[in-house]
Amino acid sequence: MKLPNIVVRILAGAVFIGLLLGGILINEYTFLVIFSLLIVLCLYEFYGLIEKAAKVPVIRTWNILGGFFLFLGGFYYCVYSASVVAFVPYMVYLMVLFISELYMKRENPIQSLSYSLLGQIFIAGPLALTNYLVFAYEPGSYHYVYILALLVTIWVNDTFAYLTGMAFGKHRLFERISPKKSWEGFVGGAMVAIASSLIFAHFFTNLSTIAWLGFAAVVVVFGTWGDLFESLIKRTLGVKDSGSMIPGHGGILDRFDSTILAIPAVCVYLLLISL
Q1: What is the reported pTM?
Q2: Please, are residues 218 and 256 in contact by the beta-carbon 8 Å criterion?
C-alpha cells in the first residue's frame, strides 16, 4: 500500500532529524560520522547539478573527496590541537585539482574550476567550520550546544516563517528569487526564533541572555540569505530541488541551505563576542 505524501514527508523528516540529533548529542565521533556523511551527500548533489543541469564537466569524486578532507582536517585540528599539517590532504586536493586541468583538454577549464571551487567555498567550507562550533563552548572538549542551538533556531524560524507567511504574507521578501517568501513570514519566524533562544540562555549560561538573543538574530538573518542563495543557484540552473534523497523534502542540500551561511556567520559572531 502506498503511503500518502504527507505521511512519507513526516516519516522521512523524522528519520533525518533523528539521525542528525543523535550524531550531535552522543559524542564527537558520532558527530564526525554524521557530518562527514552530510558533507559528502551535499557535495554529491551539488556537483551532480553542475554536471546535469549546468552541463559543466567536473571531477565529482575528487571534489567530494576534497570536501571530506577539509572537514576531517578541521576535526583533527580541533580534537588534537594539531598544526596545519591536518590540512595537508586538502592542500594536495587543491594542487591536483588545478594541475589536472592541464591534461583534461576541456573547452572551458576555468568554468570547470570555478564550479569546483564554488562547491568547496559554499558547502565544504561552512560545514567544516562546524568543528569550531562543537569545540568552542569548552576549548579542547566536545559540546553540542552551539550547533544544536543553530539548528533549532533555523528549524523554528523556518516553521513559523512558513506559518506566518501562509496566514498573513502579502509583501514579497525577494520575489525575483523566491516568490513565495514574504516580509510578514520573515518577521514572524524571526520573532519566534529569537525568543526561543531564551531557552538556551536559561540552561547554558556561558553566554549572557543578550548574547544568546544576538546569536539567534545572526542565525535568522544569515540563514535567510543562505536559503535565498541556494534558491538563486537552483533558479539559475532551472531545477526545483537539489536532489531527491529525502522523500517528500527534496535533496539533502535543500534541508541545509539555511544552515550553510549561518555557520560561518555564527563562528564570526562567537569570535567577536569572545574578544
Answers
A1: 0.90
A2: no
